Amino acid sequence: MIPLPPAHCVHLKTTSASTGVARVIAFTGEQLAADAENIVATMGLRPDWPNLGAISLAHSYGFSNLVLPLLLRGVPLILVSSPLPEALRRAAEGWSALTLAGVPALWRTWHEARVIPPTVRLAISAGAPLSLEVEEAVFSASGLKIHNFYGSSECGGITYDKTELPRQDAAGVGAPMHNIQLSLNDEGCLRVHSRAVGETYWPEASPALGEGRFQTCDLAELKDGLVFLCGRLNDQINVAGRKVSPEVIESVLRRHPAVRECVVFGVPCQQSERGESIVACVVTEDSNEESMKQHLLAALPPWQVPREWWFVRTLNPNSRGKLSRAECRMEYLSSSRTR
User: Fold this and answer.
1) pTM for the whole thing?
2) Same structural domain for residues 61 and 186?
3) Which residues pair with 279 in a beta bridge?
4) 4 part of a folded domain
5) How far is it, in rounded angstroms, from Cα 261 to Cα 259?
6) Is the CB of residue 25 less than 8 Å from the CB of residue 202?
7) Could you write out the DSSP letters of every residue in 313-338?
8) Nearest 10 degrees: CA dihedral of 171, 173, 179, 183?
9) 99, 29: one domain
10) pLDDT per residue over 288-339, tens digit each?
11) Is the pLDDT score of 60 beyond 70?
12) Which residues of 25-43 are buried (b: 16+ CB within 10 A; e: fewer)?
């Protein structure tokens, strides 16, 4: 029989399962309020710049950025019937100043459909890595800076890019948010200290979460007060004993002009002593493998260039706007067995 959550906890969240397994996190009211305080103070959310609600309110990003500021800080919320371009355009009509939170896939769609409301004063992206290409394209077209936001279901907001110009480094996720302290563990993974950190995983607790501390699996660098993400510890690909984070390869590959989106992962190599082979799953209209290899070789050592390429028409993010590396890997292995 599953035990009840701790009596002093008032809210349960589920993680995104982007690494394959979802978990449940229990929160107290004080922890939720602390997250709202950190977000409003850091981002400068304002009652006279209502939130345009185009993302799911049931997930941590939408709950923390849209629902909690409405309930606890009086920041109005305008619900959008769907995130589709026409629905966004209609919902924005008649408003002189707006805040718009999206995920990278939505920002690309809205930009290409030319429906980003001109009255948006604050633009935020979270849930998945925001490419430099999309950030620059939106800025060039309208002067609107999309602020990159990094957080986790376990602790709410972690970092935020307050700068007013597009980033030059795709790994950059800004500076620690208000009331957030960050450090690295011995493996180089980010550790978050905050009053907003969840109480516990439920029903099975973990030493990674609790007492105001959350140990992430995100490899990071802390430089000059800024945070740069270098991949996830449990996503690293082992190539003949050498480790590479797939995010490093994806970041370079996305700069190829023919690449619209990509996911990189490792699969068992036929030569067991080599560990894993690197696979690149690429959305493109020009499946020129050699051109993409040469593009990667200009920035990466040869052993980090994918050996296997999988060209697809589309990659569908889940309802949270995330691409699941685990799901892509399973689909690739399944399709490989039928070829």
Assistant:
1) 0.79
2) yes
3) 265, 308
4) no
5) 6
6) yes
7) S-----TTS---HHHHHHHHHHHHHH
8) 0
9) yes
10) 999 999 999 999 999 999 999 999 999 987 766 678 888 898 899 888 755 5
11) yes
12) bbbbeebbbbbbbbbbebb
